[in-house]
Structures are given as structure tokens and as C-alpha cells.
Amino acid sequence: MKQLFIYIIISFIPFLLFAQKANNYDYKVKNFESRINDIACDVSRNIEKPTGEQLKQLIRKSLVDYYQIASLRDKNQNGIVTQESITKYNELFDDNTKVVSDISRYSGIIVSSESYSSSVFDYLTAVGVDFEITSAVLDKIRLDKAGYYKADVLVTKILYNGLDNDNSQFRCKSGRKYDLVMSYRIDKDNLSKAYISSISGNLVKDCEDAKPKWGYYGGGDYSSISASTTDYFNSKLNTLKLTVNPAYSACIGLFYLKPLTIKEKTFLKVGFQLGYTKLQSSIDKSSYLILNDNHSFNGSNISLTNPNSTTYTTFDRIVSIDKKFVESHHSFNVAVPLGIHHILNTNNDETFRISVDAMIVPTIQVYSISKWNGRLNYYGNFNFGNQNSVTIPKQDSINGNSTDEIESGHFGLKVNAYFQNEDKSDKSAGHLVETPSQMKLKFHPSFLVAVSPNFEFIINKEMSFTISPSISYTLNSFVKSNESNKPIFAGAPTIDGGIQDRINQGIKSTVLEDYFNSVKLLSFGLRIGLMYNLK
């Protein structure tokens, strides 16, 4: 019994849906009829008042017939266009009636009513004409000298589909607006039928459907930096004056805009961007001290010149920045901007438009290059029990023994160690050292939020030139932190104990990555590009 009840309910669903659809259609027709305005209709004085009222009712009925039939869809044949529906449509018109072809892409085309219906049958068979009449006003009724009554009705008609020049179908969700004059002819001796004698008018608002867009751009950014150093740096290296300088960026990219609204208002924006960023960390003239350092090559205390005569008890290493150290960090990244593009205003002649973008920009650093500039001095304080300490290589000798032998050993105590030739001291030949691991593949994600007003200069219907200032901020660190616990430029040697060995072991990656746990960018930029409408 329960299954039978469910079967009956399911069987009734198509009928209920059909009934609901019919009710909706009847409501639309009645609503249209109620909106036909004949109050201000100018009826000629030579027409008696009862006849005038009868003519008004006849024209109202004819307008309702047109409203029901002008889609040319046959309700008895699943709504497709048939010969029967064309015949009904043509019966609304007088012989040789000319009408404006409101289904044509371009306005001003005049055809016969038969040609109009034939085009619908041939090319809009499955859908017919999708339209709405938003206003119908009886303007005037006259008695013609030939013995006919003539009436003009002012109609506002919205078309939602049509035919292009090649007779292909197109849709217009926003609607194309026509102001029409529908002229009727009524026989004086037969007030039961009104024939449409002409339909004239003009397209007053073309389709305003939003179209997908695409474009490309190039630009650059200036970024102020918010950075914090690691706990190790703050506790062990805090005498160094380490800062991060403002950054500079450049980028090129493509984007695609997908409409989210019927008219051109709001779009989903997605893009692909290749970028380059230059960051610089710097250390002003300063120094730091490593107490009780036994970083000789074999890790033990070594006599200065004679193991049996003079042996230090403790050794403190001093690393001094003699000329400002600068690390240039060049990174290359890939980004996929994603967000909303919203049009704020378009001027009356549609030559200029203002819009705004709100974006989140996932970015992945894929490659980086580091370059160092500056000059370092390495000193050692050798403490001999209760005796006074000596500093190598500042002092020339200890107990008559030259310090040159010690300086050239694996203590790595050298003055005038420089990274680039321009940093070399004029006072001595110095020691050229290299930047360790200058080039690296990186895969570090960061996320930016960005807001950008766009000033769009519309060149033609297909293309516009855009200027877009922007402001963005990184939500997480733009640079991957390695949280190094190594003393910068003075790591425990593994090869020969020389300066280059200690520099290589004194850093995990780069100064930026080792000694900053967060580097965030507040960026101000400019993008210039071209944007195109897609059909």
C-alpha cells in the first residue's frame, strides 16, 4: 500500500510541474494585460465615444494576442517553432506589413512580417523569440479617409536572444531594449479584428552582458620591510647592526576575468605571474665576540710557536665588520593571483572606467641568487693564565716570536678579508673570499593580500589600456627562515681551518634566511597593461 501511494505521488509530479508552469504563464499574460495603458489615448473627435471604447478593447485584445504569439513557440509541440505557430503569427498582420527586425544583431533592418517569422522558424526553431514587453501605451486612434480606423501603440520591448549576421544565435541576459510603434488597422465595418499594419522603432539600449576578458601587464614594486631577528642572533650576535633594506620587485603577468554578474560589474579574476624581487640585508661597522673559542682545525688548544714554551689557556675570537657588509638576495618567483575585479564607474561616453581589484596572491619562490659585499677582520684574543692577553694579528710578536706564523695557520685570523675587489683595503693585499652557495633552487610559499584601483582607458570595444597602482602585504614571511645557530662568518671549520672554511661553515643558507625568522613586505607598486574583451 505504501509503495502504491509513493507511485501515485511520483506519477503526479510531472502533472504538477506542468500545471505550475501553466499558472506562471497565465499570470504573466494577465499581468501584461493589466499594464496596458489606454487612459491617455487620443481618440479622434469624429469617432463616437462608444466606438472609441470598443476600439480600445479590440486593440488591448490584439496586444495580448501579440504578447502570447510573438515568441512563435508552439505550446502544443513542447515550445518549438512550428508551421502552425508561424501561421498564427502571420495572421496578426495586414498584407505586406513591414516590421523592424528586432532579432537582428544590428538595428535599423526592416523586413516583411513573413520574412521575420521565416527567420525564426529557420534559425531559432528550438527556442523561438525570448522577449518581454515592459510598457504598452495606446497613443492615438484615427479614422482614415479610406474608411479604416488606425491606431498607434507605443511599446517598449526587451529582447533576450536574436540572430547574428551569419544567422547564428546569440543570447543577451541583460536584454536589448527597443522603443517601437505598433500601428493597427481596423475595418470600419468589422470591429472584431485589428491587424498590425507596421512595426517601426529603434534600438535604444544594446546588449550589456558582461563578457569574459583577458589581459597582460608589467610593473614593479617598492617594499618597506618589517623584519625580526632570530633568538640565536638576539642572544649571541646582538652587537652586530643587522638590518633589512627596502626591496624592489618587477613582474610580468597574464589574467582572465570571468563575469559573476549579468552586466559588466563584478568578475572573478585569476592570473599567472612571473616575478623578481631584490632584497638586501646589511651589517654596519660593528663586531661580535666568541668567548672560549677552540675552533682551531683539530679542535684543541695549540701553542703559539712552541708547544713546550707558550700555550694559551683560552682563546676568544673577534669578528669585525670593517666595511659595511651587504647581502643582495635576488629571488625569482611564480604567483597565481586570485580575487575579485569590481567596476566602480564608467563615464557617459564609455571612454574611461574605474575599477578595483581585491586579491590574494599565493607566491612560490623557485630560485635565488645571493651576492656579498664588504670587508671583515678576524682577530684572536689569546689568554695565558694570569698573564696579559695578546691579540693576533694586531700585535707583531709574542715573547719575541713573530705572529705571522700564527696568522697564516689554521686559526683563520686574518685582517682585510673582502668579498668583492671594490671592498679591498688600500693598506694591504688582503684576502679574497667567496660567497658560499651563491645559487639555489627554492620552493618557499608565501601569501600576499593586494588591493589595486584600475584606471582603464577604453580604446575601442575590444581593447583598453590600464594603469593600476597597487598596495600589498605579505601574510607570512616572504623569506624562508632557517633559524641558524651558527656564528655568522665564523663557523666550526671542517676542511683546513682557513677563513673561507669558517665562512662556509658559518652560514646555513643566506644571512636573510639564517638570522631573520620573519621578513614581511608592505609593497607599493604600479602595473601597466592591455585588456581585451573575449567574444
Keywords, please?
8-stranded mixed β-sheet, 2 domains, 535 residues, alpha+beta, 8 helices, 13-stranded mixed β-sheet
Strand content: over 45%
pLDDT averaged over residues = 88
What is the helix fraction of residues, given as a range?
Answer: 10-25%
Q: In one word, what is the shape? A: rod-shaped
- Which structural class matches the secondary elements? alpha+beta
Q: Helix tally?
A: 8
Question: What count of domains describes the coordinates?
Answer: 2
Distance between the termini: 57 Å
Low-confidence regions: 305-309
Number of strands: 23
Question: What is the C-alpha radius of gyration, as a whole number of Å?
Answer: 43 Å
Largest sheet, in brief, is: 13 strands, mixed
Commentary on this structure:
- The chain is an alpha+beta fold and 535 residues long.
- The chain folds into 2 domains: 33-205, Nuclear Transport Factor 2, Chain: A (Roll), CATH 3.10.450.50; 213-533.
- The protein contains 8 helices and 23 strands.
- The protein has helices at 2-35, 49-69, 83-90, 113-123, 231-236, 404-407, 499-505, 511-515, and strands spanning 36-37, 42-43, 93-100, 110-112, 131-143, 148-163, 169-187, 194-205, 213-229, 242-259, 266-283, 287-290, 314-335, 338-346, 352-383, 390-392, 397-398, 401-402, 417-418, 431-432, 439-458, 463-474, 516-533.
- The strands form 3 sheets. Strands 9, 10, 11, 12, 13, 14, 15, 16, 19, 20, 21, 22 and 23 form a 13-stranded mixed β-sheet that branches. Strands 1, 2, 3, 4, 5, 6, 7 and 8 form an 8-stranded mixed β-sheet that branches.
- A hairpin with a 2-residue loop joins strand 17 and strand 18 (401-402).
- Residues 305-309 have low confidence and may be disordered.
